[in-house]
Amino acid sequence: QIVLVSGHLDSWDVGQGAMDDGGGAFISWEALSLIKDLGLRPKRTLRLVLWTAEEQGGIGAEQYYQLHKENISNFDIVMESDEGTFKPSGLGFTGNAKARDIVNEIMTLLLPINVTDVYDNADGTDIDYWMRDRVPGASLRDDLSKYFWFHHSQGDTMTVQDPNQMNLCAAVWTVVSYVIADMEEMLPR
After folding, report:
1. Contact between 141 and 91 (Cβ < 8 Å)
2. How many domains does the chain have?
3. 54 is catalytic
4. Cis peptide leading into 21, omega within 30 of 0?
5. Domain that holds residue 62
6. How confident is the model at residue 16 (pLDDT cuts 50, 70, 90)?
7. Bridge partners, residue 77, by sequence
8. What's the mean pLDDT in 6-31?
9. H or E, element range at 75
10. Whose CA is closest to 80, among 181, 6, 168?
11. What are the percentages of helix, strand and coil residues in the chain, rounded to 5?
12. Contact 20, 160 (CB under 8 A)
């Protein structure tokens, strides 16, 4: 059984792609790194996917889906960060009411960093295929007030990234992915 965390590596044809979507790729990598460094071993596999060709129509995501859809019942949740890594506020979530109740409960663990909101609907080109087939999905929600200052521009460079805000995003991703991967049962569908 798999809990998938992800971001994509491709960037637009300008800038470095540091925010779109290097930040999402980085916090996904960091989540797994933190779990390993803490010596935690969840009941389910945590899988990192660094998508490619999202900007060119989601080609990498479609290919991955085609290769793995026969095992779709083993995918517990698919998580994608693709809205920058500014100050996080919570998660967008797609799933049934029972699964949403569980995610709401998990998010209470993040009260010390004031990131507890669960919004309707996860967003992510790379996880859409899975969510259409009723796999629960989550996307990081954060402060988008500066997102379009840099999105698909020459300004999308490493200087955009704030290490403290990225650490908060990585904390959200780590807690949510680990807790779901270590629950007794998969999220209900």
Report:
1. yes
2. 1
3. yes
4. yes
5. 2-182
6. confident
7. 3
8. 88
9. strand 75-80
10. 6
11. 45, 20, 35
12. no
Catalytic site residue from 30, 54, 80, 83? 54
Residue 187 maps to a domain: no
Mean pLDDT of the residues in the chain: 95
Give the pLDDT score at 165: 96
Q: Which two tokens stand for residue 108?
A: 């209470």
How, if at all, do strands 117-120 and 88-94 pair?
parallel
Q: What is the pLDDT of residue 55?
A: 83
Query: What CATH number corresponds to the domain at position 54?
Result: 3.40.630.10
At 51-67, the pLDDT tens digits run 998 888 899 999 999 99
DSSP alpha helices (H): ranges in 38-118? 59-68, 97-107
**Tokens 């989550």 appear where?**
138
In a domain, 189, yes or no: no
Nearest-10 crossing angle of helices 163-182, 97-107: 130
- Return the pLDDT at 14: 81
Are 24 and 80 in contact by the 8 Å Cβ rule? The answer is yes
pLDDT at 20: 87
In a domain, 45, yes or no: yes
Model confidence, pTM: 0.96
Q: Is residue 188 part of a domain?
A: no
Tens digits of residue pLDDT in 137-146: 999 999 999 8
Q: What are phi and psi of 179, to 5 degrees?
A: -60, -45
